[in-house]
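ugh ok fine here u go
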Amino acid sequence: MSLQLRELNRAITAALAFGSVAALTGVPAFAQDDDSDTAQMETVEVTGSRIKRTDAEGSVPVTVIDRQALELSGDVSVADYLRNTTFNSFGSFRPQSGSSAQSFAELSLRGLGGARTLILIDGRRAPTAPQVGQAQDLNTIPLAAVERIEILTDGASAIYGSDAIGGVVNVITRRDFTGVEMTIGASDPKNSGGETEEGSVIFGAAGDRGSVIAGASYSSRGIIFQGDRPWSQGGASTFSNNLMVANPAPGTLYGFVPGGFVANPTNGSV
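structure:
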């Protein structure tokens, strides 16, 4: 009887020992299987999203013009800088006299006009200029108050509407600026007319309760008459801003009336 009990004890002990070894060797195997089945997360790229992201995440990277590039350009207005870049296309409106939109300047991306190029200020739509349709005036943004400019040349009409078919220009203002900064500039062409005087100033203050920033810009451009440039001169002197007169024919009388209009008399009448 005692022999049978001993054999039973040995069998139970062997079974317990084998079970412990199996349990110990099974834990790493379970962990390895669990690691192999773990799914790897991939980056989801969304173009034209309102979620803040870096410029390299989208399929169409956004071109960023930082503050250092703006200062090295020598320009004193946002309009002058953007209109001299390769992003600007034909068809954009520039300041000119004799029109209802004097001192107005717009940007045309992809040649679709200013009404199809959306201007944002800190992610919000800039107000449209009066008497110019749906375009926004770049001269209303002081260059001294700009931290950087983000340009998306790909159409973003799915997010912003039809006025963003050409692209989007987002002007980011300076947030943590303290002190006073002024930028001035002037130009004097070789020929008469077209003298410019421009400047911008920014003021910023910060405290425990918050911060405040204010900016202003000034621009003055002299008139260029058609007679001031040899390639636009007519056959007679000009009496208004945009007057052009053909070379007078021999024996023909020409009379100038108030307002710059030209009367070409016929049948001997003046």
